[in-house]
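Model it.
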Amino acid sequence: MSTGPDDTTDTVVVGRIGRPHGVRGEVTVEVRTDDPDLRFAPGAVLRTEPADRGPLTIAACRWHREVLLLAIDGVKSREAAEELRNTELHVPVADLPALEDPDVYYDHQLVGLTARLPDGTELGTVSAVRHEGADLLVVRRVEGGELLVPFVTAIVPTVDVPGGVVVVDPPEGLLDL
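Modeled.
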């Protein structure tokens, strides 16, 4: 396990920088963490992808309506902020707090798991987790294409992270979508 500042192998994405806000270098952030106040606290140092844009140190964090705005050390102009657009912000997996609920998972724990039907038939591999009102597993199907699976116990009764498997018990018609 490498821990160098430019290594994103053992990191998770907590946000993506969007457009500049104002003329003093603030940026908007697409939040991808459930604890933005902790992840983007002033003084936090975040790794980046592309790696050559960071690491970045948060100078200030504030909410403007429903949008998170960040001030970043050394970024003082709209032009400098624009250069950071589409930069992913990462934190080391080791910095994530342990989850107390055994039925709650970090997205990175689910991505890469093999999705199987209750009879053992392989559906594909979990390629992403979407949070669009409901949590959805994106399964890249063995025969091609993607399947969106609601991540609820009734449909995904078994998650075996150490075994590398999720069991999908789809309602009628889900596999035909």
